[in-house]
Amino acid sequence: MYEHLSDQQLLPLARRDHRAYEALMRRHLPRMHAVACGIVGESNAEDVLQEVLWSTYRNLKNFRGDAEFSTWVYRITMNACYQALRKPQADITPLDDLDPASPQNVAANAEHQQVRDLIQEGLQSLPAEQREAFSLREFLDMEYQQIADVLGVQLGTVKSRINRAKQALKQFLLQRGVKP
Fold first, then answer.
1. Is 2 a domain residue?
2. Which residues contact 45 (CB under 8 A, 6 or more apart)?
3. Is 1 a domain residue?
4. How far apart are CA 127 and CA 137, in angstroms?
5. Are residues 82 and 100 located together in one domain of the fold?
6. Both ends of the chain: CA-CA distance in Å?
7. What is the pLDDT of residue 84?
8. Taking 60 as the threshold, does the pLDDT of residue 107 lie above it?
9. Residue 1 has what pLDDT?
């Protein structure tokens, strides 16, 4: 019903009709999920997204439209991720995530999980501004200018942050025995 409308057309409707709000959020949810997975990991992404959905719903009436809706919602997503990272959490990989079908699959899944965990640890070791820029580029495939708009910085700053993040992440992984 609302899928054919642009974000700008949906915004006024979403403020008074929950179905329009749901259509608007469904449009952005996959990319929001990618950002959350990149920053807090897949196991915590759902909790973060619940907070983001509640926050956007609660604050939609205050959105003035000075920026694109997507810029606003990705900023809320990143803020929720960093808030989640400040909370102490258990770091347990559920055994249900492993495929017990064969010893090879268990070993391969465990190895992939170990590399994913190392990448996540490496991302967490980056300064927040590098992690943000890197996550938006790598997990959302955003253009550099879009990232600059979301973060409110110059284009050159974005390029520099992403380059530094890549170098630091590569060094982090090499030090832990992961070869590119």
1. no
2. 33, 36, 37
3. no
4. 16
5. no
6. 46
7. 84
8. no
9. 81
Residue 45 sits in the same domain as residue 100: no
156 shares a domain with 132: yes
- pLDDT higher for 106 or 144? 144
- Provide CB contacts within 8 A for 47, sequence distance 6+: 84
180 found inside a domain: no
Cα(19)–Cα(57) distance, integer angstroms? 12
Structural domain total, the chain? 2
**Cα–Cα distance, 20 to 9 (Å, whole number):** 10
CB proximity list for 111: less than 8 A, separation 6 or greater:
none
What is the pLDDT at residue 92? 33
Q: What is the pLDDT of residues 64-103, one digit of tens each?
A: 888 889 889 988 998 898 888 777 654 433 333 434 444 4
